[in-house]
Amino acid sequence: MVDYEKEDGMSTLIMKFGGTSVGSVQAHAQAAEIVLEQAREWDRLIVVVSAMSGVTDLLIEGAQTASHGDDQTYRGIVEDLRTIHNQVVDELLDSDGEHVHIQASVAQYLDDFAVFCNSIHVLGELTPRAMDAISSFGERINARILAAYLRQQGLHSKAVDSTELIITDDKFQKAVPLMDLTRNHIERLLTPLFEQGVVPVITGFIAATEDGVTTTLGRGGSDYSASIIGVCLEADEVWIWTDVDGVMTSDPKIVPKAKSLPLLSYNEVSELAYFGAKVVHPRTIQPVVEHGIPLRVKNTTNPTHPGTLIDQNPEKVKSTVKAVTLIEGLSMVNVEGRGMMGVPGIAARTFAAVASQGASVLMITQASSEQSISFLLPVETVESVLHALKEEMTLELARRDIEKIWARDGVVIVTAVGAGLRETPGVGARIFGALAEVGINVIAVAQGSSECSISLAIAAKDAVRAVRQIHEDVILNPGVYLYKSREE
Ligand code: ADP
Ligand code: ASP
Ligand code: MG
Question: pLDDT at residue 314 above 70?
Fold first, then answer.
């Protein structure tokens, strides 16, 4: 075990358990075992917990169907959620202990959920604010179950709602933490718990505005909660417990041969996460980078595996391309015209129009002739973006300075990531060569500004083949490929 000696002599570890790590009776028991073990090793241990896997999806489905006039689906979901949670409560908690109390707490949250859905059904409207309140129930319930089970195992533990700790702005569904306020709240509320030797089990994903209105940090945001809390407590490390052996060379669900990566830099993981590696939420990295806090990603079902260590040591492991990721469900918008060259500020106006629709652009390319600007965004935002663009460029379209504004659906982004990309010439050629070998056409290319990623826009029908081909030909056989290209 790492022996940390800080000025105050306190070692602090944050451990976050994702949905599948606390998604069943066995998973809860396994997670609790890990907590008990680490509680012996660290002066201060903080647990951050997600909802049980699938629960947040069900809560959202209940709210959405209610807003569309369906008052049956959410009732069914209430019963499904009751079954899912009670099975864990019944099997884990002794009937002469906290069983009754926690079961009542589950019932209360599910009653609240039903009341919310009923109001949404009556009003026929679902606001982002209501969505955040509703999607918070999974974490609230699960933190209570895990804390009760830990108490039953003899650990002094307490469930804490992060609405009391993480204070954000009111951008519902993607709230931004106000770090000074958050730090004050965390210190004020958690310090007395540490003094009593309590291990707090904190809800991931959720937070609140200064006025106490529930917000969320975005889907998959429990990782981000852990890093925010880690920074506020000046933790020695933050560990993300999930269902795979750390960050891997690709998503093992797409590439069964994917291997665990022992060491990655913050930059590499930021790129990986941004370009679709769901294993770490993209916003997780920024707070820990600023404070140089190491992040580990570990497997709850294989706890002795070292997983991945992420810190600021990018060059320890030299390899050109370390991982390949995929983002699906995108469209490529093209703004084209020979007269564009003469129109000032065309790019700025294009992206201002995109931003006005709240759409996030994932990749941009511009032809050097300035005859076209192309960018990729989620398919669900494309219609409103096209509309806004055509309105913004009415004059240019009438003058035929811009000839066409159009979208191509069914596009994905495949990204190759690795710090070695920076200093190795010809990596792009290797990737294109690998794809050409299997007849895959690349629609557009962009290199990340950190120079540790290359992103390719590819037709959705080729997505999985492209990821597997880059994995096989460029990641698994770098030596072979380098040798080949040197001979040519
Ligand atoms: P959790 O519920 O623990 O937060 P997630 O489902 O959010 O777990 O993230 C873990 C999943 O991320 C894995 O099961 C895996 O399918 C997926 N994944 C995508 N890309 C990668 C990658 N490069 N390395 C590891 N896992 C990845
Ligand atoms: N439960 C939330 C979600 O499903 C947060 C998380 O899992 O990190 O998005
Ligand atoms: Mg996750």
Answer: no
